[in-house]
Amino acid sequence: MDLLSGELNARLKAASGPTLWLVDENIQLSSAPNAAVTVVGNRFDVIERLEQQGWQARFGDFELSDFANEQFDCILYRVSKEKPVVHYLIQEARRLLAPQGCLVLLGDKGEGIRTYARKAASCLGGERQEQKLGKDSWCAHITPGPRAGDCPEHQNYPELRPACEDDTRVYWSKPGLFGWNKVDRGSAFLIERLPEMLGQSLPLAGRMLDLGAGFGYLSLNAAGPDTRLTCTDNNAAALLACRFNLQQAGLEGRVVAADAADRVEGPFDVILCNPPFHSGFAVDGDLTDRFLSAAARLLDRNGTACFVVNQHIPLERKAAPLFKDIQLHADNGHFKLVRLRQPIHP
Ligand SMILES: C[S@@+](CC[C@H](N)C(=O)[O-])C[C@H]1O[C@@H](n2cnc3c(N)ncnc32)[C@H](O)[C@@H]1O
After folding, report:
1. Is the bond preceding 267 in cis, omega lying within 30 degrees of 0?
2. Do the beta carbons of residue 134 and residue 128 sit within 8 Å?
3. Residue 152 CB: number of other CB atoms within 10 A?
4. Which DSSP state fits 9?
5. Which of 177, 237, 263, 265 could make an SS bond with 258 (beta carbons 3.0 to 4.6 A apart)?
6. 294-338 per-position pLDDT tens digit
7. How many CB atoms lie within 10 A of CB 38?
């Protein structure tokens, strides 16, 4: 277990007064559930796991408005990757902390923890103490005080905004989502080649799954009025953005919170997927395997799954135990498109 996780676990265990633990995907947990702690997190898989272990946990896009002012003695937060999310949560801490309370920020130097600590102290208006846990890891304590100031850098995190566009439309999104303000070049490559990959024109008819949908780019470009569309993701902000973009485009679809589609029932005629390979600050090759297994489970016997991945990911090898028909359809030097058919259902 890394130093930050060790420190976080010790604090979760020791918490006695009302404590809020803000969590995204960066956790290694060893501590038993503590009834003093309320957990709020934006990753469905993390919250589902914590609930199963007995934690009082809530999934959402860090909507904290129903907590009362000054409700918590302590707020624990291992900082997220996206700056506006961190600044927004620091601002929320200012309202939620009791006068004698404490915001505890944990993070590495490269993640900007020391800057966050400084800015949190000027936002909360109290004192800050920083504790070095190891070479790069820090734990900062910030208390509320009389000199509370603005926290302007949250960029209105709660709101969706027009984030990027192409020839067809504007995509609404927000910081914290995968590639939130750009069309992913791999996904654009998949859409460009999709008609020839499937042997049918767009929009698609039939049952389609967008696996790891993000803000819905693949669905928005492949689906139409005759598509029975399901989109799934584990990120609360992605689910919000996806629902909004589908609605803007006049598309009907189910948008399902799940961990690698574990709550989704098939079968589907077409599955589209640009699988994740990052989990928080770490690379997680296992995620690709889990997405492939989900695709095999959910694909109709006569269906087709179309994946786009970075060129270096050995998708064909990983897919070999799961599909009888695996074809490298295209490779543009950066991304490859792989067509999977005839799933091997156990
Ligand atoms: C590479 S992005 C692709 C997004 C979108 N389909 C696109 O083409 O722009 C991968 C997506 O998988 C989601 N994801 C990551 N881990 C997941 C998990 N365990 N379960 C479900 N979705 C996950 C991420 O939130 C992200 O939206």
Report:
1. yes
2. no
3. 10
4. H
5. 263
6. 999 999 999 999 999 999 999 999 999 999 999 999 999 999 999
7. 17
Higher-confidence residue: 40 or 146? 40
Q: What is the DSSP secondary structure assignment for residue 139, as one 8-state letter?
A: E
- Mean per-residue pLDDT, 195-199: 98
User: What pLDDT does 95 receive?
Assistant: 95
- Predicted confidence at residue 54, as pLDDT, reads 96
The reply to whether omega before 225 is within 30° of 0 (cis) is: no
CA 218 from centre of chain = 17
Q: Which residue has the tokens 């589609």?
A: 261
> Does ligand 1 have an atom closer than 6 angstroms to the CB of 217?
yes
Average of per-residue pLDDT values in the chain: 94
Q: Is 253 touching ligand 1 by the criterion CB < 6 Å? A: no
DSSP state letter for 201: P
Judge if the beta carbon of residue 214 lies within 6 A of ligand 1. yes
Q: Which atom of ligand 1 is nearest to the CA of 218?
A: 8
Question: Exposure of 71 by Cβ count < 10 A (0-12 exposed, 13-18 middle, 19+ buried)?
Answer: middle
How far apart are the CA of 238 and the centre of ligand 1, in A? 8
Q: Which stretches of 77-184 are DSSP H helices? A: 83-96, 113-124
d(CA 260, CA 232): 8
Residue 243 contacts residue 266 (beta carbons within 8 Å): no
Dist CA 23 CA 212 (whole Å): 20
CB-CB neighbours of 48 under 10 Å: 19
Residue 159 has pLDDT above 60, yes or no: yes
Of 232, 237, 271, 281, whose CA–CA distance to 255 is shortest?
A: 232
Instruction: Report residue 176's pLDDT band, with 50, 70 and 90 as the boundaries.
Output: confident
Sketch out the chain's domains with CATH numbers. 3-154 (3.40.50.150), 161-343 (3.40.50.150)
Q: Is 218 in the pocket of ligand 1 (CB under 6 A)?
A: yes
Q: What is the pLDDT of residue 64?
A: 97
For residue 285, the CA-to-ligand 1 centroid distance in Å is 13
